[in-house]
Amino acid sequence: MTPAPAPPPLRVAVIGGGPGGLYAAVLLKRLDPRREITVWERNAPDDTFGFGVVLSDETLGGIASADPAVHRALRREFVRWDDITVTHRGHRLTSGGHGFAALGRRRLLEILHHRCATLGIRLRFRTPAPPAADLARTHDLVVAADGVHSTTRETHAGVFRPRLATHRCRYVWLAADLALDAFRFDIAETPHGVMQLHGYPYAPGASTVIIEMREEVWRAAGLDAPGPGGLARSLEHCAAVFADTLDGRPLRSHRSSWTAFRTVVNEHWSSGRTVLLGDAAHTAHFSIGSGTKLAVEDALALAACLRERPTVAEALAAYEAERRPVVESTQRAATASLRWFEELADRLEQPPRQFAFNLLTRSRRVTHGNLRLRDPAFTDAVERDFGCPPGTPPMFTPFRLGPLELRNRIVVSPMDMYSAVDGVPGEFHLVHLGARALGGAGLVMTEMVCVSAEGRITPGCTGLWTGEQAAAWRRITRFVHDQAPGTAIGVQLGHAGRKGSTRLMWEGMDDPLPERNWPLSAASPLPYRPGVSQVPHALDRAGLTAVREEFAAAARRAADSGFDLLELHCAHGYLLSGFLSPLTNRRTDAYGGPLEHRLRYPLEVFDAVRAVWPDDRPMTVRISATDWADGGTTAEDSVAIARAFAAHGAAAIDVSTGQVVPGERPEFGRSYQTPYADRIRGALGVPVIAVGAISSWDDVNSLLLAGRADLCALGRPHLHDPHWTLRAAAEQGYTGPGAPWPPPYRAGSRRPPTGRTDAPKPRLTLE
């Protein structure tokens, strides 16, 4: 049988001669030497922005598998080091075991240029590429690796649908003629504000130095002067500020300029035969060192998908499907790091080691557990400063919440069960809350308990507007106190407002009841889902007074029922939250308009509840720190809201986000809401409860040690495993008083054995 003829080789055009574009060209040529590949680069071969490039061991492993020749050349050039040093207020703290490899960006390009020439790839320097649409007519594949200011992306914005966000700091990419001894993060407090240095060695006698500061600091310091003369003065100023770090050496530039970082996100990465790669498709803040890394990994994935798929169209779809989750995860980490530095001034008062730990774990990629493996001595010192008794993980250190002593830092978050009858909690609630109390958490919270029948979300919501309901709750609190001694149980009081009279969650979340609806009330007559939800009536003076008294009456019943703590629900678009958000409060009376007026009614309710709630039991408040929607609650608003409640006697602020308007766009991800708690704690110093996709005990320990939260509330993990806290203790080998096992369960306190897992194979291996 005659073998089928080989498919014709691809003609490939690469726009942009940065590391990502060049490496993509190398890999595509290696896969099929018959391919005709041309790279267009508008600049000269040695004309590059920046100085050093950091690559991770993971990326280097991919390069080693895909092109050993490039890897050997890179390996000869690398400068390697293990330490990260943080300098702040005269304290220099070093953490080891991190493992970095860097080389000069110019040298990296030279290696890739040589490899391209060896393979027969055409390099066209000082030559702008033809438009991508023209190239697509004569080529089978167009790789647009033309950077953060991609002409290809902007020309075809209607297809790629880019979203660009410019951030609040200015930075400049420089170099110094000395080899720093570690990855350096040095903080300087100047008369104009806080400045920070990010630096690392990339050659035997040279280091990359990035100077960054808030826009207002940059202007106040006079660093915004235009032209070469202005930049020269900037370099002199920054070299003087960081003279100790630089050992008195000057800073030098090459095509450097002050700029604001832009995050690039694209809804689509390909169009026809054209595909975006590297910074053209996505950017990640330099503080986690991922720009070149992402571009190189893009190139590896694109080449592999073109080998594995029969058509270019299928390969481009597979490339995006593979890379997008990885990139989005990296961008979430980079955004967390970026915002950490933007809000650096709020953290300056932290103790030195906690500050350093906070910086090291800012992106949530490095955790308490990672750091313990890398540098146990440093982590031990941070734990001692935190107050951990010997052998006690941070999550099992006690915490005093006002007058209430909690044996550990874990809270079972309020979770609506929609399983009550006429507001009365039944056998299900006894087992549900009882099981979680036996599971070891320091504090177990009820679901939102409604203060009236009209204040329910659904017919299945619990309440505290009758004596029968109070008696049922008393049975539950008695069980917790008797069978799980040391566990506190709290009640969350709330009123659904405009989000009420809906079906049970599993029957249609936020869908109105088909019959037997009850009237709704809210700050303003705005339906939650226009055209779908019932239109509420705006509370008048009599209505405001009546609802306030319902809250107070429910609080009295809660106290009589034996709850240890009361939380006022002012989040998630329910009644009190509806007064706080400008998106849901359109009132023109004393309860609408500026934030101080929108706060009035929630504070009146808080005061009424506090007046009847026992002095020896704390009150907390849950807020939505952002609405995730334009025109909604801002970061500054959330701090002001927290400040107001703290001034009225809140022992802690439970910091959630969103669920205020249906058109919200949350930035979902691991621990995605915790930066809002961190901001409030840093700005006000009040205790905060962090929530939002906190799923591992390692994350909990990290958040606590970094000073981003005082307590961590977990919901879904406690649905998955009622004994989540006890299991966390077992997995950490902890047997102390912060997580005592109930006697009947002690046999389960030994961590069961687990099987091994193997690391994934390299993405692309070429002989």
Automatic annotation (TrEMBL):
Domain NADH:flavin oxidoreductase/NADH oxidase N-terminal: from-to ranges: 395-730
GO molecular function ontology, one term from the record: FAD binding
Sequence segments annotated as region (Disordered): 733-767
Family matches, as Gene3D superfamilies: 3.30.9.20, Aldolase class I, FAD/NAD(P)-binding domain
InterPro entries: Aldolase_TIM (IPR013785), FAD-bd (IPR002938), FAD/NAD-bd_sf (IPR036188), OxRdtase_FMN_N (IPR001155), YqjM-like (IPR044152)
Domain FAD-binding, chain residue ranges per copy: 140-331
Biased composition (Basic and acidic residues): 758-767
Domain of life (superkingdom): Bacteria
PANTHER family attached to this UniProt entry: BLR3436 PROTEIN, NADPH DEHYDROGENASE C23G7.10C-RELATED
Name of the protein described by the UniProt record: Salicylyl-CoA 5-hydroxylase
UniProt lineage: Bacteria, Bacillati, Actinomycetota, Actinomycetes, Kitasatosporales
